[in-house]
Amino acid sequence: MFEHYIKLYFNGREKRNFPTVEMTLDEISTLLFCTNRNSKLVIDRLIKGQWIEWAPGRGRGNKSRMTFLENPEALLSAMCKEMVQNGDLQNASKYMEEYQTFFPKLMDQFKEWMESLFGFHQEETIEGKKDILRLKVNITSFFPSLDPKWAQLRSQSHVVKQLFDTLVVFDPRTKTIKPHLAFHWEYDEQRFKWTFYIRKGVFFHDGTPLRAEHAAKSLLELKFDRSHPFQWMLSQVESIEATEEYIVELVLKETHAFFLSILADERCSIVRYNQNAEGHEPLIGTGPFSLEKLNDDRLIIKANDHYFNGRPFLDFVELWNEESIPGLKEAGSSAFEFMSYVHPSDPESSGNRTKSIEWNTQFVSINTRKQGVCQNNNFRKLLHSILDPALMKKELGGPRGDIANGILPGAAEIKRDSVSEADLLRTSGYKGETLKLYTFTDQDHVEETAWIIERCADYGIKIEASFFPGIELLQNHRLEEADLVHDSANMTEQMEMCFLHHFLSSNSVLKIHLSEAAMIEVEAILLRMVKMSEREERLQCLREIENIMVSKTHILPLYRNQSVIEYNQDVQNIQLTSDGWVEFDRVWFKK
């Protein structure tokens, strides 16, 4: 209807006595490219919408009179705002782009309005006043699945943790495993047979009471579903059984030092399947929030009023996809209105600070499993010499962190090869072929990939880059066909678990790219590590693996960042997860 109104409005604006103009039905039909019958239908809709008044001409030669009641710029603004508030970001985007030439100032006004939406708000709803935290996220599209066993991205894992719970949890403050859905557990002398006692009074989001059978079925699904990447997690489990209404028993094939840590992982969340009329089985959890809405534009979660571990302060958390609508990237801060991510070395302002014990290391993985020049050690040494992270940081600038010498924090400095780059190139086996470099669509990856291509071109090495959304890049066939992948690795206080994920998950770039000989070495070290009870012994195993990766140039470490946020005085109990996100169920606001 708006398209018709704006055509009539701009045509009428050129006539005498505007905003009341004389027009015949034939003139309207010609303007709208439709029949007289359809023109009458358009006029009726505009009258009902109170956009025009219409006085039909009576008698031969008497024209009808149309009075325009609404300013089209105000109409467009109101329409797009209503679309955004109803979650229809795609159409709001379409209308804004289509008509911004008509109303050149409107886009800036719309950006200002968008900016006002983000951060913490108290808003009136039909259920009363609600506390809402509205954030924008930099992802191409939301996740195709929130099934915990498919949690592959950091953002995806964080949302899963809001919706679902595990039997036990890792407490980063005490660095211990603590009870959660299971309030107690015990094991036999050999630590083969584990018995977990399920907490009473816990309910799924649909009101179904939690029972041991739900825990058993969830873990069995994870163990026997062969389609997901995390087969290794319960491979050491021989059997899973709900022996009583609130007791679940797991029997292991052999002892495993990280069994409880595995059960605390979000992929081991306890879920319930809800068979609906369409035959789909959406998963239901017991977490602090329930899923309210999920589409390509927005993800909304709602507080669980009956959460066994304490109801969240926030009533709703909304994540908006900044790719969905013009101006969203520029609106507000990159995270919260009330906080920002800063570098640890930045001088502190008047705000408070908190940091996560989480290290994110950017690196380039070299596919030594694929036949080709990347299997030549001198070629990999050449890339290591060319792609100097100190030079990258100097030339690109921006919020890039400390130079990384490996994946682990505190890794020893890497010695650059004493052989000249010219000699390395001569003995590299490189014959002018084009190498495929795959990475994510994030801006930092795009900038760094352009730098890598330019540096390699200086030495006659041809690189062709392709950029993919997170889920799409983490496909086995995609990683297998790439010669190089620009990726990142997270290290938390549970570094051993991080390494198990990086080298045992079937779609891990490190597992897929590592040569068969190197992978045999790594798996042997991991097998030793999972039987060790002493932490320092286990960390030595991680250093051995890192040495294989770095000394044999399977990866090229670039730089690492530590998540640090600065926030204002109104924010209370702010805590960062190991994924660098804020704990939505803990944070609250004074105002």
UniProtKB/TrEMBL annotation:
GO MF, one annotated term: peptide transmembrane transporter activity
Gene3D superfamilies attached to this UniProt entry: Dipeptide-binding Protein, Domain 3, Periplasmic binding protein-like II
GO biological process: peptide transport
Residue ranges annotated for the Transcriptional regulator SgrR N-terminal HTH domain, each copy included: 4-101
The keyword Ribosomal protein appears for this protein: no
Residue ranges of every copy of the Solute-binding protein family domain listed in the record: 176-466
Name of this chain's protein: MarR-like DNA-binding transcriptional regulator SgrR of sgrS sRNA
